[in-house]
User: Which sequence fits this backbone?
C-alpha cells in the first residue's frame, strides 16, 4: 500500500491521504501513490503560482449536516437535471433519448490528458463511484443535461465521465453553488468520437470561504467539436481548468470564459489546448473584471505538436481592474512544433476606458450606470456566441446580479 | 441661453482657455472658428464637465443656472449636449439600447416619464432617416464598424433624439462629405427654435453654408479675438487666421 511521501503534509493532506488509504482498492492505488507524491498544488509550482490550494486549505473545512440548495443558476432552462449533492449524483426520471446515465464503481483509470494532475489523482483515489454519461452514435440530444453541484461545508470529490459516440450532439450545463467552508474537487472526463459535438456551459458560484477546483479533460476526435462557455464568480480559491486534446484531424474547439470577482475572491481560468492532428481550429476568449481585493487569473496555453499542421488558433484575454486593490494575472502561452500554423494571442489588463465613461455620462447616464453598462458590455462579449437564448439569459442574469453589487 | 464669463481652463497644468467671455442667447446659432490649438475642443469638454479639464476661474451658466459645479450627467440632464469630434466605439452595447437608456436617464433626471419602447422606436426610425443611417447599422454595437462619417451621423441622430436645450457641436464637419454636411445643416435647421441654442465649432466656412450662424467668433489662444456676423467666416476663408494670431 502506498505511503505518504510528502514531507510535512498539511492537516488536510494527511486527512485526504488517510481517507483515501482507508478505502483504497488495488485499482485506486496508483492514483493514490501519485497524489501522495505531490500533495495539494501550491504556489511553488509554476502552473499554480497564482492559486495556492495548499495555503487556501490550511484549515480543514469541517463537514456540516445537510446541503444548501440555492436557486438553480440555470433556472429558466429546461434541462435533465442531475443533482450532485456533496459529491453524490442523483437524478429522477428518464434521461433524454439517446443518453444513458449510470453510476459505476471507480476503476480509477484516469484519461491520459489528466493522469499527471494532482487533483485528478486525488479525485480518482478518493471516490468510490463515478458518474458515466454516454450519448449514442448519431443521437442529436436537444435537451441539455444539467450537472447541478450543490453542497455545504466539508470536503468532497466527484468524478464524471462523458462519452459522445460518433456523430452525436449534446449540451452539458454545469452549475456550482457552494455554501460555507468547503473543498470541492471535481473531475470531468469527456471523450468526443468522430464528428461528435458537445457544448458545455458552466456557471461557478463558489462561496467566499469555499475552495473549488473543477478540472475537465476533453478528448476531441476527428471532425468533432467542443465548445465551452464559463462564468466564474470565484471563491476563497477557485480553479477552473480545462485540458483539451485535439487528437483527430479537423477538430474544433471554442473556449469562452468570464471572471467576475469582488471582495477577497479569487478565480482562476486555466486551460490547455493540445493540437495533435492536422487542420484543427480553436478560438479562446477570456474577459475578467475584478473589484475590491479580488484576483482574476488567466492561464491559457496552445500546444501545437509536430502533427498539428495547419492549426488555426487564436486566443484573447482581457481584464478590467475596477479599483486599485484588484489584481489580474495573465499568462497566455504558445508552444508550437509544427511549421505551418496560424496561431496568435493577445492579452491586456487595464481600467475602464475614461473616454467611454465620459461619453456615457455626457449622454445623461449617472457614473454608476455608465460603469455598469461598460462592464456589462465588456464581459458580455463572452456570452455573445451562446446560441441558446435561455442559456444566454442565465449567464447574463448572473452577471447582472454581480454588477448590481460590485460596480 | 449659454453665458460664459471670463472662463479659464487648464489641462494638465497648462492654461488653454484664458479669459473667454461669450453669450449665446436662446434661439441663436453661434459658430466658433479658430486655428489648431486655440482651445476649441478644450472649451467644449470644459462645458460638458470632463474631469481632467480644470476650470480655474470664471463662470458658465445655462438658462441662468451655473453648470460648472455639476457632474457631466447632470449637465446633460439640464439639456447640454456635446457632439463629439471623435465619437467612441462601444463594443457590446447595441446602438438602440444605448440611445434609449441615455434618453430615459435624462428624462428620469428631469422628472419626465420614460419613453415607451414603441414611442422610442417610432422616433428613432424617423430621426435615423433624417441623418441617413440605415437600419442594419443600427442593429450593431454602438459605432462599431461605422465609418468616420457614420459616427458623425450617429452624433446627429442622438442630438435629434435628445432635443437638447443647448448643443455644442465640436468639429462635426471633420471627415464629412458634401452630402453629410447638408445633413448636419438639415438636423440643425429642424431643431432650431426660440428656446434652443447651438455653439458650432469648426475650422471651415463650408459647414456654415448649411447652418447659417447668427454670430461667428474667432478663438485665438484661449480668448475670443473677434466676433461678427456670418460674413466674418467668409473673410477668414479668404485671408486666414494670421491677422488674428498676430494680434493676439
Assistant:
Amino acid at each position: 500500500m502506498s505511503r505518504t511521501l510528502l514531507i510535512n503534509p498539511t492537516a488536510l493532506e494527511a486527512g485526504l491521504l488517510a481517507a483515501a488509504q482507508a478505502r483504497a482498492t488495488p485499482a485506486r492505488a496508483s492514483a493514490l501513490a501519485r497524489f501522495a507524491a505531490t500533495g495539494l498544488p501550491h504556489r511553488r509550482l509554476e502552473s499554480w503560482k497564482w492559486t495556492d490550494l495548499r495555503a487556501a486549505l490550511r484549515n480543514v473545512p469541517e463537514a456540516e449536516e445537510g446541503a444548501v440548495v440555492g436557486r438553480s443558476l440555470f433556472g429558466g432552462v429546461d434541462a435533465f437535471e442531475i443533482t450532485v449533492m456533496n459529491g453524490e449524483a442523483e437524478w429522477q426520471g428518464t434521461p433524454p433519448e439517446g443518453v444513458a446515465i449510470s453510476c459505476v464503481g471507480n476503476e480509477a483509470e484516469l484519461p491520459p490528458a489528466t493522469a499527471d494532475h494532482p487533483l485528478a489523482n486525488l479525485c480518482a483515489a478518493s471516490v468510490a463511484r463515478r458518474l458515466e454519461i454516454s450519448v449514442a452514435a448519431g443521437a442529436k440530444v436537444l435537451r441539455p443535461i444539467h450537472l447541478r453541484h450543490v453542497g455545504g461545508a466539508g470536503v468532497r470529490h466527484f468524478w464524471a465521465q462523458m462519452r459522445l459516440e460518433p456523430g452525436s450532439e449534446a449540451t452539458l450545463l454545469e452549475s456550482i453553488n457552494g455554501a460555507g467552508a468547503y473543498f470541492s474537487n471535481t473531475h470531468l472526463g469527456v471523450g468526443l468520437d468522430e464528428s461528435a459535438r458537445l457544448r458545455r456551459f458552466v456557471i461557478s458560484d463558489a462561496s467566499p470561504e469555499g475552495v473549488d477546483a473543477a478540472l475537465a479533460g476533453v478528448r476531441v476526435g476527428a471532425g468533432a467539436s467542443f465548445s465551452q462557455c464559463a462564468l466564474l464568480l470565484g471563491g476563497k480559491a477557485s480553479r477552473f481548468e480545462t485540458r483539451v486534446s485535439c487528437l483527430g484531424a479537423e477538430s474544433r474547439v471554442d473556449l469562452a470564459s468570464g471572471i467576475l470577482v469582488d471582495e477577497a475572491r479569487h478565480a482562476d481560468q486555466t486551460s490547455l489546448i493540445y493540437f495533435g492532428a492536422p487542420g484543427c481550429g480553436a478560438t479562446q476568449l477570456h474577459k475578467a473584471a475584478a473589484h475590491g481585493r479580488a484576483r482574476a487569473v488567466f492561464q491559457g496555453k496552445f500546444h501545437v505538436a509536430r502533427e498539428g499542421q495547419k492549426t488555426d488558433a487564436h486566443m484573447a484575454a482581457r481584464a478590467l481592474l475596477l479599483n486599485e486593490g484588484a489584481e489580474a494575472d495573465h499568462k497566455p502561452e504558445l508552444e508550437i512544433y509544427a511549421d505551418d500554423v496560424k496561431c496568435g494571442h493577445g492579452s491586456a489588463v487595464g481600467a475602464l476606458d475614461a473616454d467611454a465613461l465620459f461619453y456615457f455620462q455626457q449622454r445623461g447616464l449617472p457614473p454608476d450606470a455608465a460603469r455598469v453598462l461598460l462592464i456589462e458590455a465588456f464581459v458580455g462579449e463572452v456570452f455573445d456566441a451562446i446560441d441558446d437564448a435561455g442559456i444566454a439569459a442565465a449567464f447574463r442574469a448572473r452577471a447582472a446580479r454581480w454588477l448590481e453589487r460590485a460596480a | 441661453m449659454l453665458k460664459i464669463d471670463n472662463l479659464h481652463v487648464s489641462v494638465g497644468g497648462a492654461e488653454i482657455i484664458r479669459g473667454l467671455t461669450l453669450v449665446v442667447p436662446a434661439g441663436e446659432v453661434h459658430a466658433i472658428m479658430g486655428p489648431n490649438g486655440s482651445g476649441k475642443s478644450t472649451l467644449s469638454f470644459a462645458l460638458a464637465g470632463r474631469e481632467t479639464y480644470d476650470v480655474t476661474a470664471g463662470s458658465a451658466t445655462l438658462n441662468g443656472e451655473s453648470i460648472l459645479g455639476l457632474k457631466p450627467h447632470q449637465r446633460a440632464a439640464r439639456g447640454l449636449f456635446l457632439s463629439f469630434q471623435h465619437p467612441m466605439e462601444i463594443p457590446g452595447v447595441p446602438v438602440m439600447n444605448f440611445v434609449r437608456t441615455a434618453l430615459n436617464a435624462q428624462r428620469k433626471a428631469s422628472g419626465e416619464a420614460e419613453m415607451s419602447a414603441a414611442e422610442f422606436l417610432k422616433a428613432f426610425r424617423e430621426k435615423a432617416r433624417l441623418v441617413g443611417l440605415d437600419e442594419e447599422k443600427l442593429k450593431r454595437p454602438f459605432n462599431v464598424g461605422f465609418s468616420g462619417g457614420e459616427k458623425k451621423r450617429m452624433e446627429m441622430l442622438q442630438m435629434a433624439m435628445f432635443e437638447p436645450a443647448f448643443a455644442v457641436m465640436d468639429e462635426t464637419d471633420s471627415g464629412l462629405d458634401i452630402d453629410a454636411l447638408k445633413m448636419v445643416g438639415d438636423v440643425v435647421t429642424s431643431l432650431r427654435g426660440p428656446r434652443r441654442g447651438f455653439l458650432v465649432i469648426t475650422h471651415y466656412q463650408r459647414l456654415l453654408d448649411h447652418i447659417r450662424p447668427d454670430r461667428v467668433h474667432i478663438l485665438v489662444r484661449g480668448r475670443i479675438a473677434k466676433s461678427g456676423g456670418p460674413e466674418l467666416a467668409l473673410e477668414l476663408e479668404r485671408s486666414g487666421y494670421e491677422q488674428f494670431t498676430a494680434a493676439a
Notes: The first helix of chain B runs from residue 40 to 48.
